[in-house]
Design brief:
Length: 141
């Protein structure tokens, strides 16, 4: 009996899905899975940046508050560090937010088209069944 390693599991999983689904459905499913994973990871990354930005800003504010008033050099140094963190966070927000939004939009568009494709295939099957049934009724007459 062979050991079931993760790579063997994924190879078997891909093989089973590739055999069970036609190539177009496989591609659509793969696009949905990849876009969902990418969108989710980008939103989690953006949330992590927001949390870290808040924590670092709070820590710098606490350090400034704990310093004596006479120590202007350290206060200026901590303020410069806080401004640097704020600028970096703003840049990351400006970069990641539109990217996450675009990937999420792609996911919903792909999901919608996959759903409409399933509905149209079902309607085609229903129409084929109905036309076959009506032909059989006409042949019986």
């Amino acid at each position: 009996m062979s050991k079931d390693t993760p790579s063997n599991f994924f190879q078997r999983w891909i093989l089973v899905n590739a055999q069970a689904n036609p190539p177009q459905e496989w591609r659509d499913s793969f696009k949905l899975i990849v876009s969902a994973a990418l969108a989710l990871s980008l939103w989690i990354f953006l949330g992590g940046i927001a949390v870290l930005h808040f924590q670092v800003s709070r820590e710098f504010s606490r350090k400034i508050a704990d310093l004596p008033v006479q120590d202007n050099a350290k206060v200026n140094q901590i303020e410069k560090a806080a401004l640097s963190v704020n600028d970096t966070a703003k840049t990351l927000y400006a970069l990641i937010t539109p990217l996450a939004t675009a990937v999420t939009g792609y996911f919903f568009a792909a999901s919608s088209s996959a759903t409409s494709l399933i509905k149209s295939e079902k309607n085609t099957e229903d129409n084929t069944t109905n036309s076959t049934a009506s032909l059989e009724k006409e042949n019986k007459k």
